[in-house]
Amino acid sequence: MTDRVDLATLTPHVALGALDGRYRRAVAPLTNHLSEAALNRARVHVEVEWLIHLTDEAVLPGAPRLSEGDKAYLRGVVATFGADEIAELAEIERETLHDVKAVEYFLKRRLDAAPDVLGEGTVLPRVHEIVHIFCTSEDVNNLSYALTVKDAVTEVWLPAASGMVDEVADLAREHAGAAMLSRTHGQPATPTTLGKELAVLAHRLRRQLRRVASAEYLGKINGATGTYGAHAVSVPGVDWEAVARSFVEHLGLTWNPLTTQIESHDWQAELYADVARFNRVLHNLATDVWTYISLGYFRQRLSAQGSTGSSTMPHKVNPIRFENAEANLEISSALLDTLGSTLVTSRLQRDLTDSSTQRNIGTAFGHSLLAIDNVRRGLAGLDVDGDALARDLDGNWEVLGEAVQQAMRAASIAGATGMEDPYERLKDLTRGRRVDGPGMREFVAGLGLPGDVEARLLALEPGTYTGLAERLVRHLDA
């Protein structure tokens, strides 16, 4: 191997993972929220807002008040945080060997540079010691992660997931009346409609989305062990809990009043469990649609797939979008499960397991977002084959055995005679045997049912034995 090009040395860098390489197009929007660069931008944001908050609240004796121009300049540091700033911050971190300390020094450089922009009248060079005051690294980190995860979910993941579920719901409405043979345990069973089965999945997915949409994002800013110790000693007489609460809420987060050095991450575990559950329901949709494709109920449009089905079998159009989705949903759910189980535990007042663990949040959401993208693209390339649905139904008249048996029971209760042993009689007719239309009608005609019941059963076909299935789809609009 020594005579080959060292791919690790190439510029631009070769991606190690699939999300930053092969699949970057689908997951790129998450970079704005869950990348290391986005985390650092959020840290700068938290430090800037903490500085502004403390001076606005006038809780630090002798601290100058910031002008609106000063505040705008500081918030501009966040707004313009880009490639040059990312490189500069990385350079500082190589010296500090500490990511949050590097952010502190980065911001102090901007304070020193303020007169070049605002003029000599600015007070910003004089507020060095307010930057990061009373903060442990986790005060900045927990707020930054809460902000970035919240934005990733509300601005990227939820819109994509909701859009995909709406498309499933649209398919359900479109095919609400498309009669389809059910297959409980993989065997022919009481008919349903394709739309009703898709509606079940859309309904399940929407329920999980409502849970994700209602998630709380918690934050704290209370010092090295969550006691406000340094705050109370340095500046006594200030209601530091009120200051902390108003700051966390100013950031758009929910204040957590009781923590150790770290915010306990329980909200993250709750959120990731809900997203993982959504993933698993979506996995169920992917496997069901895959199966319907294999049964011929769905045809895949070649133009929509835009791919080679098989390298050796040119006739094939493989359901690759749904298979890709399955794999990525499994990876995402495994990572989310690990995040949830790991993050809720920290030895005593703090250990560092969460630091490395949380750097995988973007990967977990990335695989879920990639799966959502694949399902959307897969669904967009499907057409329903009504003839295939009808052929399958017409080849399984024995599924009407349930209807005949229950009608016999109801007739018996209503006073009809000769309705004994309905289950056993239908079992003898149908179990392990194929029954066609004439055979089923002959059996019904010989039962001695009341006239109206007999007429109703004689008119019944597998394609019309769908109960309230079509009407049930309307629940999607409730």
TrEMBL record:
Residues 21-325 form the Fumarate lyase N-terminal domain. It comes from the Bacteria. It holds the Pfam family Lyase_1. Residues 346-466 form the Adenylosuccinate lyase PurB C-terminal domain. It catalyses: N(6)-(1,2-dicarboxyethyl)-AMP = fumarate + AMP; (2S)-2-[5-amino-1-(5-phospho-beta-D-ribosyl)imidazole-4-carboxamido]succinate = 5-amino-1-(5-phospho-beta-D-ribosyl)imidazole-4-carboxamide + fumarate. This is Adenylosuccinate lyase. Catalyzes two reactions in de novo purine nucleotide biosynthesis. Catalyzes the breakdown of 5-aminoimidazole- (N-succinylocarboxamide) ribotide (SAICAR or 2-[5-amino-1-(5-phospho-beta-D-ribosyl)imidazole-4-carboxamido]succinate) to 5-aminoimidazole-4-carboxamide ribotide (AICAR or 5-amino-1-(5-phospho-beta-D-ribosyl)imidazole-4-carboxamide) and fumarate, and of adenylosuccinate (ADS or N(6)-(1,2-dicarboxyethyl)-AMP) to adenosine monophosphate (AMP) and fumarate. NCBIfam families: PRK09285.1, purB. PANTHER family: ADENYLOSUCCINATE LYASE. It comes from Georgenia muralis. The keyword Ion transport does not apply. The keyword Lyase applies. Pathway: Purine metabolism; IMP biosynthesis via de novo pathway; 5-amino-1-(5-phospho-D-ribosyl)imidazole-4-carboxamide from 5-amino-1-(5-phospho-D-ribosyl)imidazole-4-carboxylate: step 2/2; Purine metabolism; AMP biosynthesis via de novo pathway; AMP from IMP: step 2/2. Keywords: Lyase, Purine biosynthesis.
